[in-house]
Specification:
Serine Threonine Protein Phosphatase 5, Tetratricopeptide repeat, 248 residues, MAP-kinase scaffold activity, 8 helices, 10 strands
Amino acid sequence: GDSVITVQLTEEDKVEDDVVFYLVFTGSTVQHCTSTRKINPGSLETISPGHDCCETVKVALCASREGHPVLVVAEESFQFVQDEVYDAAQFLATCAGNQQALNFTRFLERSRSPAADVDFWDEKVALAFRHLKLPAEWNVLGADQSLSENIPRETLMHFAVRLGLLRLTWFLLQQPGGRGALSIHNNEGATPVSLALERGYQKLHQLLTEEGAREPDSWSTLSHTVHSGDYSVKHHRGLGVYLLTAEA
């Protein structure tokens, strides 16, 4: 989800300015409708929806004009695939509280990418986490809430801070157990806060310690979502488009 989609219109589809185009994605259990913006007379742009599973869906380009019926201009198939970043997010979410798995993730630090790649990966994995269907009882510290904060252990917050993942850290802070993870020491005696300080991650340290710290700039900060029952409406301010998602 949240990738930019460009639609190229044929000559016969280039119409007057008062025609509004929509894309409708029909999946097995979820349907999405996105508005579009015109880049030029022959091109439209919109945001791809975050889908609930990997499948090929039908996508229809619809045209609407006041006083006229809605027309289906064209239909095509569109495939949602599960990439490595989504796999990583799913693995991390499943392993919250699993010490063996979280200790294994520390190997990632040894093959850490250059800063630019870390920034790109941070953006992608934070978006993937936002699109995961996390259980209502999901917690950053794992399923066993009886563990005392005094018991040294590795947490997802340690993982995010160690790799300098600013946007993922922000996401975790907003989840149950996120704030509690800040005071937990790992086996080396480090908290996420002390790790950020030790590694010179100033922005990350401010994010963890300053009251009223704002969400880091990212693609997701351009979006605002409102949920209501089986429906959600998302506004992407960057492109000025809206996305309606409904569970079938």
